[in-house]
Amino acid sequence: MELQLKNIGMIKEANVKIDGLTVIAGENDTGKSTVARELHYEITSLGSMGRFPIPFRRAKLIFDKNEEKVNRAVLIDTPNSLDTFSFIKNATLLIHQHRLDIHLPIFRVDLILQLSQNIFQQEENSNIYKNIEKIIDGKVYYDENKDEIFYKKYSLKNKKIAMKDTSNGIKMFGFLQILLLNDTLKKGITLILDEPEVHLHPKWQLEYAKLLINLVKNGVKVLVNSHSPYMIEALKRYSDLEKIEDKTNFYLAEDGYIKQINDNNSETLEKIFEKLSEPFDTFEEMDSQSMEKLING
Description:
By secondary structure, the protein is of the alpha/beta class. It has helices at 32-47, 80-83, 85-96, 106-115, 127-136, 168-181, 202-217, 229-241, 265-276, 278-296; strands at residues 2-8, 11-17, 21-26, 60-62, 73-76, 138-143, 148-153, 159-162, 190-194, 221-226, 248-254, 257-259. The longest helix is centred in the C-terminal third of the chain and has 19 residues, at 278-296. Mean pLDDT is 87; it is low at 49-53.
């Protein structure tokens, strides 16, 4: 499928293919988040079934002739969604009962509802789930009885820790754990991540990238917005290693356009890394100036 946007927010034009793995790289305020939210909005509008009011469409979602339409998407943009889980869930209920008149983003409400689903599969059926357990030394899970989300740390004798006392890195892996456990992250769903690396150490960025590639191999469509060279390089290398290059597309967000360079991943990545290396060019210039002052006294 392809998402088409024109004159929306910061975006003048964007045509983004969502096939297996899609990566949009660029500086802040270049329209990456707009793509993420519009994609979620478009997919949700196809399968809302009355869950959300869909007043108007700002973008187009185009499907290939023989492509099966998707109707579920998950957008994760901040670990704070786990901190405010109960508040958003209760507020959603009050809004539906017309007892509370506030606006909550559709994508965030939808995420909370999907996190609180109580249809569980067996943990041992998912190698991806097991890998996350090893990485974070525990699990993040939804406690239906308390209607809250907790982190259980294995090396601390399964200590139960509240989300407000849990690191943002743990939370980013925790989203995936819960959505795997309740059978949300499966073939046919679209997972949208808006700059997940902001909350992850470079080492964990690589681990996260590896998990995303495994999800793609299992039929999940993944869109990642990023400005981290570690994350982008890892996604490229792992997609090559797992031989899903034909389902991987990289885009550059720049000057109001979300685009590929000559419809080519390699040329696009070259331009992406050129843009991301600009801060290092500044450091090199500073070093040169320091050296010049040292030589000239």
